[in-house]
What does this fold into?
Amino acid sequence: MRIILLRHGPAEARDSVQWPDDALRPLTTKGASRTRDVALGILCLEDPPTAIWTSPLVRARQTAEIARDVWGERTTIENRDTLRPGGSWRLLCDAMLERTELESLAIVGHEPDLGRLLGVFLFCSPNAIAIKKAGACGIEFHDQPGPGQGVLKWFLGPRALQRLAQTRKGNA
It folds into this structure.
């Protein structure tokens, strides 16, 4: 199984007047544009995943929808409550083990949770490895996904992924 961890793109500033419920805070216009370029850059490194699991928070859901638009309609999107901030990486791993038919999966979420998940996959440790907004990494599992079973294939920030997207656009 291949997994792409993708942190949501840049969102509007916290504002309890405009968004009393922080879960409703959306991506900025620049954040949406950056996310589109990042998703295109990921295509330079990986085939499109067959599924996207996303936090149900608006900014993560928007990131997932933009990625699917770039990756193609064959990629399905599922909201996962375990990807809400503070969610359980253990429950997420259990859910992945139940979906053995998935060959590739993108997980869209928040920090520090995605960084903790990366630490678990690579080192059996939930110590966070920071992923920038709209940054991503690719992990490969030779068998079932689980603690310490992942091999890091690539880890890039948004600028590097945007540069890859520009290269791809230039070759199109």
Notes: The two ends are 29 Å apart (CA to CA). The mean pLDDT is 94.
